[in-house]
Design a protein that fits this description.
Degradation activator, about 40% helix, DNA-binding, single chain, transcription regulation, alpha/beta, about 325 residues, Rossmann fold, DNA-binding transcription factor activity, elongated
Length: about 325
């Protein structure tokens, strides 16, 4: 064959499922001998490099910035479930601003991972050092990025549309009569911040309505103090944690939510329906994004080199009780 056969080709030739092929290739138990022989024969017929395949460990790495922000474990948990039972996922926390990213990648390489999914990692930080990821490239370990993009790596990228998130939030607030709308996001170096800010400005708002702090409750408090001081009646946040900080700061200053200030988060993290008030937020399509990431990584591990394609998914605005009519 002109190109390296894929697992799907082996499955079709052997008359079995892709997962069965993967279990045979990784030496998993519980496979009937006639099924195993059918897969091995398909490998021989299609010219599949058995020696190279036997080097696979069946382990994939899932890298998140931290585990304290509930949105990241939500992605990691979904990915772990999707990779099973064919692959084992090792979850690694790279630390704020990728402080431990290099050591995490070194550990994953030591474990012999077959591929890596990076969530909001270096590809989301326009000033990040991509050298650790070049080590993955040199080792032939494919990587898929969720919520990040860079032209410096020939990887696959899966993102939630920041522009649509901002547009839906602004449309909702304007329908409630709000005109003085602020945007609270993280540092300017991060791609989600840049994309949300650009979309916000394109909707006619001024730069003085954007506050860039950090994606934490404390960052939300700082942003809220500045935006409330300049008469904003609604604030769109770059994360749910920021939104909780905004609400706390508003209340400390005597503002009621949503009577005096409407607040919108981003992520729809677990428990956001149980906050006081329940948080209106933008929900990332985690299931669909993870499915795309897993599919892309499996294809890459199967020999199909990623070409830098970016898949962008549409988010959903979940309206709860933290937004209300302007009074």
């Amino acid at each position: 064959m002109g190109t390296r056969p894929r697992m799907s080709d082996l499955a079709a030739s052997a008359g079995v499922s892709v997962s069965t092929v993967s279990r045979v290739l990784n030496g998993k138990p519980g496979i009937r001998e006639n099924t195993r022989q059918a897969v091995l024969q398909a490998m021989a017929d299609l010219g599949y490099d058995r020696e190279k395949l036997q080097q696979r460990t069946g382990v994939v790495g899932v890298m998140v910035p931290e585990l304290s922000n509930p949105s990241f474990p939500a992605f990691a948990e979904r990915l772990d479930a999707m990779f099973q039972p064919v692959h084992r996922a090792v979850i690694a926390a790279a630390g704020p601003l990728g402080a431990n990213e290099s050591s995490c990648i070194a550990t994953l390489l030591d474990l012999g991972v077959d591929g890596v999914v990076s969530i909001s990692g270096a590809a989301a930080d326009t000033e990040a050092d991509l050298t650790p990821y070049l080590r993955l490239v040199e080792a032939g370990v494919p990587t898929v990025f969720i919520n990040g993009h860079t032209t410096k790596l020939a990887s696959a990228f899966v993102n939630c549309s920041d522009a649509e998130a901002v547009a839906a939030s602004v449309a909702h607030l304007r329908s409630l009569g709000h005109e003085r709308i602020g945007l609270a996001v993280g540092p300017a170096r991060f791609l989600p911040t840049q994309r949300k800010s650009s979309a916000f400005l394109e909707l006619g708002f001024g730069k003085d309505s954007i506050e860039r702090t950090i994606f934490t409750p404390e960052g939300g408090q700082v942003a809220a103090a500045r935006l409330l001081a300049t008469g904003h009646t609604a604030i769109i946040c770059g994360s749910d944690l920021m939104a909780l900080g905004v609400i706390r700061e508003a209340r400390s200053r005597g503002f009621r939510v949503p009577e005096d200030l409407s607040v919108i988060g981003f992520d729809d993290s677990p428990l956001m329906a149980f906050t006081d008030p329940p948080l209106t937020t933008v929900r990332q399509p985690v299931q669909a994004m993870c499915e795309a990431a897993v599919s892309g990584l499996v294809r890459a591990m199967d020999g199909n080199t990623p070409d830098g394609t970016e898949l962008v998914f549409r988010p959903d605005l979940i309206i709860r009780q933290s937004t209300g009519p302007r009074t």
